[in-house]
Amino acid sequence: MLNLVPMIQRGKAPLALTTPFIEEINQKIASLIDRSSKLAAAVLEREVGQHN
């Protein structure tokens, strides 16, 4: 049986992408993407509303 774990290099040590640190970073990235999308939609709505 072969178990593949995605890895990244962090400094000089490899780090598995399944660690709690990486999971926390992924949650922060997802939150940032969500907030950015909401901000972009709000800005677009405001811009369109000003031109009507």
Count of runs of 4 or more consecutive helical residues: 1
Shape: rod-shaped
Multimerization status: single chain
**Helix-strand sequence:** EEH
Whole-Å distance between the termini?
A: 63 Å
Sequence of strands across the biggest β-sheet: 1-2
Which bin fits the share of residues in helices? 55-70%
Question: Strand percentage, roughly?
Answer: 15-25%
| Uncertain spans | none
Report Rg. 19 Å
**Overall pLDDT confidence:** 87
Helix/strand structural class: alpha+beta
Account of the protein in words:
This protein is an alpha+beta fold and 52 residues long. It is built from one helix and two strands, in the order ββα. The longest helix has 31 residues, at 20-50. The radius of gyration is 19 Å and the shape is rod-shaped. The mean pLDDT is 87.
Name some characteristics of this structure.
1 helix; 15% strand; alpha+beta; rod-shaped; 52 residues
Concise description?
With 52 residues, this protein is an alpha+beta fold.
Sequence-ordered SSE layout with sheet pairings:
Layout: E1 7-10, E2 13-16, H1 20-50
